[in-house]
Amino acid sequence: xxxxxxxxxxxxxxxxxxxxxxxxxxxxxxxxxxxxxxxxxxxxxxxxxxxxxxxxxxxxxxxxxxxxxxxxxxxxxxxxxxxxxxxxxxxxxxxxxxxxxxxxxxxxxxxxxxxxxxxxxxxxxxxxxxxxxxxxxxxxxxxxxxxxxxxxxxxxxxxxxxxxxxxxxxxxxxxxxxxxxxxxxxxxxxxxxxxxxxxxxxxxxxxxxxxxxxxxxxxxxxxxxxxxxxxxxxxxxxxxxxxxxxxxxxxxxxxxxxxxxxxxxxxxxxxxxxxxxxxxxxxxxxxxxxxxxxxxxxxxxxxxxxxxxxxxxxxxxxxxxxxxxxxxxxxxxxxxxxxxxxxxxxxxxxxxxxxxxxxxxxxxxxxxxxxxxxxxxxxxxxxxxxxxxxxxxxxxxxxxxxxxxxxxxxxxxxxxxxxxxxxxxxxxxxxxxxxxxxxxxxxxxxxxxxxxxxxxxxxxxxxxxxxxxxxxxxxxxxxxxxxxxxxxxxxxxxxxxxxxxxxxxxxxxxxxxxxxxxxxxxxxxxxxxxxxxxx
Length: 535
Ligand code: F6P
Fold this sequence. Notes:
This protein is an alpha/beta fold. The chain has helices spanning 3-10, 16-22, 26-29, 48-60, 63-71, 105-123, 148-156, 174-181, 201-218, 223-226, 234-240, 266-272, 274-293, 300-314, 332-344, 376-381, 401-420, 424-433, 438-444, 466-487, 498-507, 510-513, 521-533, and strands spanning 31-34, 37-40, 98-99, 102-103, 137-141, 165-169, 189-194, 227-230, 247-248, 319-325, 362-364, 388-393, 456-461. α1 (3-10) crosses α14 (300-314) and α12 crosses α13 (274-293).
């Protein structure tokens, strides 16, 4: 299926330096804009002919048809026989989203209204704790999609946060719970147990501990006041001891990693307020519009997806780096790891057949400038080439201009030097000017040469506003959808997480009995070593 791409990639010779010197219009031509983002892909291994091939690939994958089925609420998640209609979560009353002919917008809007009302009541002190004190802190207990989205957005929009301070406990490692609660007071802490299934072991374990933490200091009856839930599983929420009024729903057609727009955003509504949350939704809505309306050649998510496919299936590159030049986007790489790798980390196609081509690369990254002082050495001079997304705002959000200029300068400088490198002759010239001997120059020059030709996108925006953040996350969602279509996989299931969960359930009793019969000798040996060491 990707033979033509691989063939084209195999014949690819021009470097970025050559392409820029032969084509002065390149920096303005290979740019797409939409929903407040400027996507500059000029520093990629593409020319017009490659772009045509990639656009042909989108067309031959029937992207247009598949996109309209997706927006029409068809059951694109075939293995779970349901739609994936997270775009409806950012709808306003003029939008039309339906499943099986029935509009889902009224229920989305009414649930949003309900969760907003609760958030407003908490923020205004109308809903408060057992002792009558206002909630100063909210602890979200959830994992995966019930954690990473709210965590990313809470960090990103921290400067606009005036409500209860959000905290996040996800890891089943007790240290996460203990560290997070260290400076919190039960009287002023509200817990949100966020779990679509309300059956995720890690989350339920931490939620049970939180319940004990509250009851031990405020009494059992305080649980009703100090807990809320976001879940599709109403009866398990009730069994846990959270009332129906405090349970906010999440529709079965919303996948965990696509759910930040739903009631899963409750900690954000509490911290930021419904008005900011609405702006976040509206940014995503503009990106939905852009994804639906812009021609593929100027469509940001489609271009992001096609470039990814070019590197993965043409050149066989195995990783993709996300390097936000924004400290407040520090969690973006982690968020995208789940979004991309849980969605498209697949080896079976939509017909149930094993694929004979590669799918999702490893997504990784760190914010700049920190990454520069750790792994950029490899990016510049290592043997592995990883395409990069650089993300950068033109304006700082409540920080000083001079720091921001330094940040911007770092980002552009990295993108420039990765693309164009530094030639041996320039290195030699510089060392000569510094007065080094010929022998010393000869010994040093190869170490100080930069091959360049390392591809990157530059994703620019005005500032990290709620709208821009919404648009950015939605752009990645649609990139994932587009790649899923091209790779012909189901981007909305995640069967690959099940085996480990199952095995964990089977193994847990062995930590009491010491008997791991049925497990491999390796696991039995590890278990007995751990038990021998345990205090
Ligand atoms: O184990 C993976 C997963 O199912 C994710 O897809 C999901 O986001 C996460 O667990 C949490 O699930 P839940 O919201 O049901 O607790």
